[in-house]
Amino acid sequence: MFAWLGRLFALFGFLFFLIVVAGAIIAYREAAPEPVEPQTVVLNIDFTQPIVEQSTPSPFDIASDDQPIALIDVLRAIAHAKEDPHVKAIIGHFGAEQPGLAATQEIRAALKEFRTSGKPTYAYGTSYGDFGLGNKAYYLASAFEAIWMQPIGSVSLTGIGLQEPFFKTALDKIGVTADFMQREEYKSFMDMAKHDAFVPEVRNDMQNLIADIAAQEADGIAESRGWKAEQVKKLMEEGPYVDDEAMKNGLVTKLAYQNELQTEMEQKFGKEVQGVGIDEYLAYRAPKAAKTEQGGDAHKPVKIAVIYCNGMIMDHAVRQGLMDDKVVGADDLSDAFDDAIKDKDVKGILFRINSPGGSPEASETIRHAVTEAQAKGKPVYVSMGDMAASGGYWVAMNADHIVADAGSITGSIGVIAGKFAADGILEKVGAHMDSVKTADNAGLWSPAEKFTQHQRDRVNALLDRSYQYFIKNVADARHLPLDKMPDLAKGRVWSGLQAQRVGLVDEVGGLSETLEGLRKKAGIGEKDIVALSVFPQPETPVQRLLRMLKSLGLQQAMAMRISSMLGNAQHVLGPWMPFVTHHGATQALLPFNADSLR
User: Fold this and answer.
1) Which of 8, 102, 280, 391 is the most buried (most CB within 10 A)?
2) For residues 166 and 160, what is the distance between their CA atoms, to the nearest angstrom?
3) Considering only CA atoms, which of 532, 424, 534, 380 is closest in space to residue 170?
């Protein structure tokens, strides 16, 4: 026992040491002098690291340069680099990591605009997909003028597929029943537990979705490389390609090592050329922007609030220690909208959504906050990321204008509720449950028994209420005939391009198009300086460190360990996790695991 206590105290001592080191690094970085911009710059975009909606570095990784990059920072850097005479070229570095489809499309559009400057762009990868799937990697790389690859690399251009595991037979064997009801037949979130394969309606829906995404990628690659779309589709059907095959088919423009690319940069731009990353480059730009904004009241920047809805939507976001959670708290977002309303300098709100949905009640709280902002004269423009589906669409539908990337996954207008009933397990092991209760439905959500018919009727009543409210609000908000909604709802999933065609979104585009439209709607002139202000302000590493110091203890350490175990379980359970952690609750969630879309 004493040995165990000794190890425990040693662990906390080590944690304290890490905290002190992290604090020292943070203090050093914050006190560091303003960086000096080199005269000749090549902007490096590191796609070997995740491209995320918001970058929230931890105190423990603050010492590392290998941190996620915020998409908006990538777009800002490319836009600045186009006009910056110091920047001579852009190099995109590729590895195993691949940005999401919507992020890829926004970066492609930014690169297309950059290339009008006449400055060269290079993609470099040891491979594009390696022994995995490289569709999105090559789709992004094709937007660069020159595509270099290391010898022995490969281009894994193979088309789009969606795979989901099905567990009904396995659950039957252990005595578990997936007792779920949904609105309606396309809302397939729990089909993997209820069936052993895609049902025909869902198979058709998913096939249409991936066909549209594959066509988007083929058309984009064809446009960038000067090919015909049919040629790209044929390449997708016959891939992947080893290095010499990739060269022969024009998929890459040169086979070379990374040091040879550096030599080319020096030959083109001189020995003094320096490679600069996104964060470092924007650090050069920040002091210039600050000086521009300090020109008196006549040059006072006009503020646009940026509010992120990034993750599963629930009433509250539970934060424990330093862990990144994937839950959006409706209370936090409601407060963010309220703060933006009260800020007299805020002229409009850019609402960025990347969410598979969640609780209808929480989604309704956020939707109401959107309408409150509009009522106070603050226009709200939505920009959809990789997905804004189900509850993610619920929070978007009342916006003044909805912009989706062509590959954004949206729609999924439907709801689902139910439980896993494990009475068969108890029977198999000879265990028996007994209970006392004041009403028959007191055990409604008990996992020890299936729903009775009366309980099923009550759950269906809850679903009907949420679903009817959902589709009526969509019809009203989007000015669509109510009798048209069955063709758009029932849990169907659309790409952004498809959603624009049927009226669920207004425009296909990204953050840049959303911001430009919002400027005009809010009456902001083209010459006005616009300051984007995130609401609520993201935590700094110091704030995260202080929060950890306040909360960290034995109980917190145990909570972190349990959450870590749940995180590991999520790799196995995938989209079942919301029902593990919020058992039985009515959910408006994307009907498939988006991570399985490749």
Assistant:
1) 391
2) 20
3) 424
- Give the torsion through C-alpha atoms of 247, 253, 257, 262, to 10 deg: 180
User: 268 — phi, psi (to 5°)?
Assistant: -80, -40
Output the CA–CA distances (angstroms, integers) from residue 354 to 23, 199, 284, 405, 436, in the order listed.
32, 27, 29, 11, 44
Write the DSSP string, 224-271. Answer: HHT--HHHHHHHHHH--EEHHHHHHTTS-SEE--HHHHHHHHHHHH-T
pTM of this structure? 0.85
> Which among 306, 338, 330 is positioned nearest to 588, based on CA atoms?
330
36 Cβ neighbours under 8 A, 6+ residues apart: none
Residue at 405: amino acid letter: D
- Which of 251, 283, 315 marks a domain boundary? 283
In the block, tokens 């909805």 appear at 402
Same domain, 264 and 405: no
Residue 2 lies in a domain: no
**Pair 409, 549 in one domain:** yes
How many helices, marked H, and strands, marked E, lie in the chain? 22, 24
* Torsion over CA: 511, 98, 536, 372 (sign): positive
Q: Taking Cα atoms as reference points, which of 405, 346, 408, 381 lies closest to residue 534?
A: 346
Whether 183 and 414 have beta carbons less than 8 Å apart is answered as yes
Shared-domain flag, residues 397 and 519: yes
Residues 306 and 370 in one domain: yes
Domain assignment present for residue 314? The answer is: yes
- Which comes out higher in pLDDT, residue 592 or 438? 438
Mean of per-residue pLDDT scores for the chain: 84
71, 127: one domain: yes
C-beta of residue 416 within 8 angstroms of C-beta of residue 181: yes
CA dihedral 83, 88, 90, 91 (to 10 degrees): -170
Q: Which domain holds residue 112?
A: 36-157+239-283
| H or E element that contains 431 | none
Confidence at residue 571, expressed as pLDDT on a 0 to 100 scale: 41
CATH (domain of 385): 3.90.226.10
Distance of CA 127 to the CA centre of its chain: 24
Residue 428 — pLDDT band, cuts 50, 70, 90? confident
User: Are residue 318 and residue 250 in the same domain, yes or no?
Assistant: no
User: Of 224, 251, 283, at which residue does a domain stop?
Assistant: 283
Residue 369 belongs to a domain: yes
Tokens of 351: 């609402």
**Model confidence at 30: pLDDT above 70:** no
Same domain, 450 and 514: yes
Are residues 377 and 409 both part of a single domain?
yes
Give yes or no for a contact between 302 and 529, defined as CB atoms under 8 angstroms apart.
yes
